[in-house]
Design goal:
6-stranded antiparallel sheet, 1% helix, disordered N terminus
């Protein structure tokens, strides 16, 4: 028979119990020992004699073992039987062709143990059937080390296994406990009432459990499967599986009332898996699990994964090599852009297991590599305030160059503060401006792809000294600027201009010079924008040229203008006179009057420059409209007049000094009478309807057409004079009572028939007027600057007053005027005035405001704002202070306010102190200038705060003490710590973390931060000298970083990559640290970020 490497169950291999097929003197074999009539009563002696005779090691027996051929019963009592020889069958049932079934009984009394290399086997050969019945009040434990082709209890070809005994335990290493791999059809296992069956298999085969190829498992109604949890017999897989369908490697079947004194509670997996994929890897991390008995540091972990489309899993470690306290694992050699199922199994010391839960993760598409083959950075030019740089293009796979971004970082040589330029997409040259003259700078160019936030690719360093300061750029006036002529007299000219600007000289330091007629240089001062020239000649042209000059003497282009002074004028006080007479000549028609007059004269104004105005009206009108005719106008014709109508006419002449004289008036000048009498054709009334309250009156107007009708008089009448009466001549309507009436106007001339028009008058009862009771002017006190405008608000009470209109007045219109009907203010000159708003409803109510007008002060407006930092990272609860400055430095308003885009992530106080709140969040802290609303911002990223205790587990003797150290990340976290113990009767802890062992047992010491974060240390107290306060039982940290005496130290347990960055993100050093402690020297004092593998730590070198 082939060597059998099977799982540990029954190790009695080689027994043959045949009913009628063996010779009487031989009943079978026990591990190769013949069982006969002579030795069957003491098989223990037979085994030991056989081992002695043939010098077989590891083949021995003790206790009692006998076989009764008549009942086919093998009885063992407190037996220990060991056989470490492979390939020997133990107890077998092999019926011959004549016997269809055979039976072997094993009676167990007391405690029995069989240790074997192969198996305890019962099976039927060919198509026969066999039954193995294990019964008795004792227990049987079978430990099977090998076995590959056979299970510990091999069952095939229709065999049965009946278990009646008190306890049967099968421990197998390399196969199943019960079942077969050969002729698997059919077999049945029955666990009877009161029996206990435990199978533990340590095989690593994914398709072999505690049972294999068992067709039926029959369990007494008063028993059940206790392990695995939610276990059941799976008929399709022919084995026992757990609640999620996994093959069970350990099975316990016992009465329902059975309670295990073993640890059968699986660990508790905490939280979800965190998966970070790349194109070929998935980095998994998870939180430590916990268990009711096993310490967290002693829990073992196994990672499994498979393509989502596959059925079989791959494993990180075999079952017997699962590492302890593993909280991360990277799965490698995966296929890009593929979905994988991943899960983590955790086992306690008793072998109980649980899973974190399957998670589906897709690997990323293969990421191109960012490559900068030539890292040369060249200085191509420089000035006193700029440096021009050029570099070579980087590549990112086959992506277009426009997706690659470059950032120039630079600093003063010898300093550590970095500045960043604007990101440049696809460009390989740039000029850095705003530098100081005659100063040495260092430059690098950082290279990113647009998908990246950080980079390790950058050019070589370039150095350059800016040129010494040479200012050759003159000031400039604003585009389109002109000289403004403010005032011209006979001897003076006042001009003004917009102020110039310069690239270096501040605007308030620019000097102005004016040339007059190209000869005279007037240096008029600094920061001025107007000048008055006096002592000029009257009626003379002058050319003025305004120049701006900066502090080093550069002259701007000039602003030019030509101005002529006024001519000196002798005052003219005499009016024109009439050398040719002053009579008007009138020619009349029926509809027009033509008037002419002789030319007047004046002692100063030329005759042709005299101006004439024609005044004209009907003789019965009180208003005389004037018609300005212009210079030297000696006639005028008026048309559209009525026949046979009298008119008044007057002509006035004016000289250039506005002196005037009238021609003789033509009074009662009359148009000719018409030969035809025109009769009325129609009558219209205005308005076309009328609404009145009782006791009110209104006058209607009747219009008779055509306009030249001889008799245009009408007679007014009312159809209901008790409601509304009307004056027959004037058309005045008086409302007398509520209701409706019709008012009619009838033309008196009825030669061509009666012409009339009627309108409706609606009369309502008189409404009691609601008068204004109070007026408020808002604001009550106000200040303006000369030239400003403003709009006052008038508030009238009550809100339902009948007439709320106000009339506005200013007590001093020379200081400020106010529109009569609207409260619109125009500030004119410095001073104080009272603005009054008075009601129009006759109530006499008014409100007032005191208005002060001030002379304007030159105000320099803000043009921007700059925050001192662009990006900071803070831990939860951490703070940082930002500062901002308004541009330019001499801006009149330097005020600004701080705000946060998300105060739940990071808040900011009015003085710029930022406080981090929500770990993992990002917020923008914005400074907004009061003047102009200019903004700049800083990006704040919030990291979480964590705490750990060193060491994380200790063993102490009674009365011993130990001082624990709680370390926060970040190390300078402001959170406070508090210590506690879950079992003060075992281990006490004070407020400083000092632990004292009080009594034997286990305790958990917990440190809690004020933010709620916690860490534990597991303390075991033993009596006597079993404790050792200096022994480190568990240490979570595989690597450590610290600084001492100005040197950075890195300690690690494995060969690992280490990267050191400054806080601007620039990589300073990169090396592979060996096992142990490695010093990193030559780093100046400051803050650093040290990355060891996937862990990043902040370190301060002092």
């Amino acid at each position: 028979m082939k060597r059998l490497i099977l799982l540990t169950l029954l190790t009695l291999i080689g027994w043959i119990g045949a009913t009628n097929t063996l010779r009487a003197e031989k009943y079978g074999k026990l591990f190769g020992v013949d069982i006969t009539d002579k030795n069957c009563h003491d098989l223990v002696k037979a085994v030991n004699d056989y081992a002695y005779k043939y010098s077989i090691k590891f083949f021995e027996a003790s206790g009692k073992l006998s076989y009764d051929h008549s009942t086919h019963t093998l009885t063992m009592e407190n037996l220990t039987l060991s056989c470490k020889l492979s390939g020997l069958d133990g107890i077998a049932i092999r019926p011959n062709d004549e016997i269809n079934k055979s039976q072997l009984k094993i009676e167990v009394i007391g405690t029995n143990t069989v240790n074997c290399k192969t198996a305890l086997i019962t099976y039927g050969e060919g198509m026969g059937k066999g039954t193995l019945d294990i019964k008795g009040p004792g227990t049987l434990t079978v430990n099977c080390e090998d076995g590959y082709y056979c299970a510990t209890v091999e069952m095939r070809a229709g065999t049965y296994l009946d278990i009646h005994c008190k306890e049967l335990c099968i421990n197998v290493k390399n196969n199943a406990g019960i079942g077969t791999h050969r002729q698997p059809s059919p077999s049945t296992v029955s666990v009877h009432e009161g029996a206990f069956l435990k199978i533990t298999s340590a095989n690593t085969h994914s398709d072999i459990g505690a049972f294999t190829n068992v067709d039926n498992l029959r369990i007494n109604a008063n028993s059940k499967i206790h392990k695995p949890a939610s276990g059941q017999f799976n008929y399709s897989k022919k084995t026992v599986t757990d609640g999620v369908g996994n093959l069970a490697k350990e099975v316990i079947i016992a009465p329902k009332s059975w309670m295990s004194d073993e640890d059968d509670t699986p660990p508790t997996a905490k939280g979800d898996l965190t998966a970070t994929p790349t194109d070929k890897t998935i980095a998994l991390s998870w939180k430590r699990a916990s268990d009711n008995k096993t310490l967290p540091g002693n829990l073992r972990y196994q990672v499994r994964w498979k393509r989502t489309s596959d059925k079989s899993w791959k494993y990180s470690h075999s079952e017997d090599k699962m590492p302890k306290d593993m909280t991360s694992y990277t799965i490698e050699d995966l296929t890009p852009k593929t979905k994988y199922d991943v899960d983590v199994k955790v086992c306690d010391g008793a072998g109980n297991a649980s899973y974190y839960g399957k998670k589906t993760v897709q690997t990323k598409e293969t990421t191109p590599e960012l490559v900068l083959k030539d890292k040369t950075l060249t200085v191509t030019g420089k000035t006193d305030h700029s440096v021009s740089l050029q570099w070579h293009a980087a590549t990112y796979g086959t992506r277009p160059h426009s997706e690659i971004k470059y950032s120039i970082v630079y600093r003063l040589k010898g300093e550590e503060t970095w500045k960043h330029s604007t990101l440049l997409y696809g460009e390989t040259e740039h000029t850095v401006t705003g530098l100081m003259a005659d100063t040495e700078y260092e430059f690098w160019v950082l290279v990113f792809h647009k998908s990246m936030d950080i980079t390790l690719v950058y050019t070589d360093k370039a150095e350059a000294r800016t040129d010494k300061l040479v200012d050759k750029t003159p000031p400039t006036f604003p585009e389109g600027a002109r000289v403004k002529v403010d005032e011209v007299t006979e001897t003076t000219v006042k001009i003004s201009w917009p102020k110039a600007t310069d690239d270096r000289t501040p605007q308030n330091k620019i000097r102005y010079t004016i040339y007059k007629n190209w000869k005279y240089n007037y240096s008029i001062g600094i920061d001025v924008d107007s000048h008055t020239f006096d002592l000029l000649a009257q009626d003379t042209k002058y050319k003025f040229q305004v120049y701006a000059i900066d502090e080093v003497g550069n002259w701007s282009k000039s602003l030019d203008t030509i101005i002529k002074t006024k001519k000196k004028v002798v005052p003219d006080t005499e009016p024109p006179y009439f050398p040719n007479g002053q009579e008007l000549s009138v020619t009349a028609t029926e509809t027009s009057l033509n008037v002419s007059w002789p030319a007047a004269a004046d002692k100063v104004t030329a005759t042709n420059d005299l101006r004439y105005t024609f005044f004209f009206s009907r003789s019965d009108a009180s208003y005389w409209p004037g018609n300005t005719l212009g210079k030297n106008a000696l006639s005028h014709t008026v048309t559209g007049l009525q026949p046979d109508t009298e008119y008044n006419i007057c002509v006035t002449v004016y000289d250039e000094a506005a002196n005037s004289a009238d021609y003789t008036w033509k009074l009662k000048t009359k148009t000719k009478a018409s030969d035809k009498t025109v009769h009325p054709a129609s009558v219209s009334i205005a308005p076309t309807s009328l609404d009145l309250e009782t006791e009110n009156k209104a006058t209607l107007t009747a219009t008779v057409l055509p306009a030249d009708a001889k008799d245009k008089t009408v007679t007014w009448s009312s159809n209901l004079p008790a409601i509304a009466s009307v004056d027959a001549v004037t058309g005045e309507v008086t409302a007398l009572a509520p209701g409706k009436a019709e008012i009619t106007a009838t033309a008196n001339d009825k030669a061509d028939g009666t012409k009339s028009e009627t309108i409706e008058v609606r009369v309502k009862a008189k409404k009691v007027r609601k008068l204004v009771t109070d007026v408020s002017v808002m604001p009550a006190v106000h200040t303006m600057v000369e030239g400003d405008i403003f709009y006052y608000s008038g508030i009238v009470e009550p809100d339902d007053a009948d007439e709320k209109a106000l009339t506005w007045t200013s007590s001093d219109p020379t200081v400020a005027t106010v529109s009569k009907g609207g409260g619109f203010i125009n500030a004119l000159k410095a001073g104080t005035t009272t603005i009054t708003a008075t009601t129009n409803d006759g109530s006499g109510k008014y409100g007032q405001s005191t208005l002060t007008v001030k002379t304007p002060i030159l105000v320099i407006a803000a043009t921007g704002i700059v925050v001192d930092q662009t990006d900071i990272s803070l831990y939860e609860g951490g703070t940082a202070t930002l500062t901002a400055r308004v541009l330019p430095a001499d801006a009149a308003s330097k005020g600004f306010t701080w705000s946060s885009s998300d105060p739940t992530v990071a808040s900011v106080s009015s003085d710029g102190v930022v406080t981090a709140h929500l770990p993992g969040g990002t917020a923008l802290i914005t400074a907004t200038a009061d003047d102009g609303g200019w903004t700049d911002f800083c990006t704040v990223r919030v990291k979480g705060t964590s705490v750990k205790i060193t060491p994380s587990a200790f063993r102490l003797g009674l009365g011993e003490s130990l001082e624990l150290t709680a370390t926060t990340e970040p190390w300078d976290s402001p959170m406070t710590k508090s210590w506690s113990t879950n079992r003060p009767g075992v281990a006490e802890v004070n407020k400083d973390g000092k632990v004292k062992a009080v009594a034997e047992g286990d305790a958990v010491i917990t440190v809690t931060l004020s933010g709620g974060q916690k860490a534990n240390c597991y303390i075991t107290v033993k009596k006597g000298d079993e404790g050792n306060a200096n022994e480190l039982i568990v240490d979570d940290s595989n690597s450590r970083v610290w600084a001492a005496d100005g040197i950075l130290y890195v300690s690690t347990e494995q060969l690992i990559d280490v990267e050191v960055f400054n806080f601007s993100g620039l990589l300073l050093k990169k090396f592979k640290a060996s096992t142990g402690t490695t010093p990193v020297e030559h780093l100046p004092a400051g803050f650093y970020a040290v990355r060891i593998g996937q862990q990043t730590t902040k370190v301060v070198i002092r």
